[in-house]
Amino acid sequence: MDQPNRSLIEQDPLRTKILECVAQLALPQCYVAAGFVRNLVWDHLHGFDSPTPLNDIDVIYFDRGDYGYQSDIDYEAQLKQRLPELNWQVRNQANMHTRNQDKPYQSTLDAMSYWPEKETAIAVKKNCHGRIECISAFGLESLFNLKITPNPNRGRDVFDQRVQSKNWLTHWPQLTIG
């Protein structure tokens, strides 16, 4: 994410606070992903006066040494203590391949490359120097071009169901399916 785009997050006090809380966990390959970035960009490009409320905060990390789900629950509890008003969803991407019936993922970025929409596969974190870093499995161009694009690594039916159930095309009417 280049500097002008980073400023979208830096200008959002809630998102900044979320990134600070997540950084305190010091988890490997740890990012805040999905709607955290996607919705903010679409809101900005639609000229919304205030950000769309976040349904949940998707925290992703990659730890091959921890194959249980109890750690995810424990990390969610820690984050809930810091910001109790938010719905935290913490997932070790090293475990998610079994749920998704994929081959084992090799990293957080590899796991994101299997998410249903390309524009959801974007994540940010605050690094040890306090700067925002961004990773994306498919780049940022389609996100900033107001596209919602199916991932060829996932079935089209999953994509279609998510587009309909999440009401993206109604909430952000300038979106087009890529």
Describe the structure concisely:
42% of the residues lie in helices and 15% in strands. It is α/β, with parallel strands linked by helices.
Main features:
178 residues, alpha/beta, Beta Polymerase, domain 2, 5-stranded mixed β-sheet, two-stranded parallel ribbon, NTP_transf_6, Nitrate reductase
3D architecture notes:
- The chain has 178 residues and is of the alpha/beta class.
- It has one domain: Beta Polymerase, domain 2 (2-Layer Sandwich), CATH 3.30.460.
- Helix content is 42%, strand content 15%.
- It contains nine helices and seven strands.
- The protein has helices at residues 3-10, 13-25, 35-46, 70-82, 96-100, 108-112, 141-144, 156-166, 168-171, and strands spanning 31-33, 57-61, 88-92, 122-126, 132-136, 147-148, 176-177.
- The longest helix is centred in the first third of the chain and has 13 residues, at 13-25.
- It is globular.
- InterPro entries: NTP_transf_6.
- This is Nitrate reductase.
Low-confidence stretches: none
Relevant CATH superfamily: Beta Polymerase, domain 2
Q: Total strand count, please?
A: 7
Provide a count of the helices.
9
Tell me the name of the CATH class. Answer: Alpha Beta
Order of helices and strands: HHEHEHEHHEEHEHHE
Q: What structural category characterises the helix and strand content?
A: alpha/beta
Between the first and last Cα atoms, what is the distance in angstroms? 21 Å
What would the CATH topology be? Answer: Beta Polymerase, domain 2
Q: Quick check: average pLDDT?
A: 93
Shape: globular
Largest sheet entry: 5 strands, mixed
> What helical percentage do the residues reach?
40-55%
Radius of gyration: 16 Å
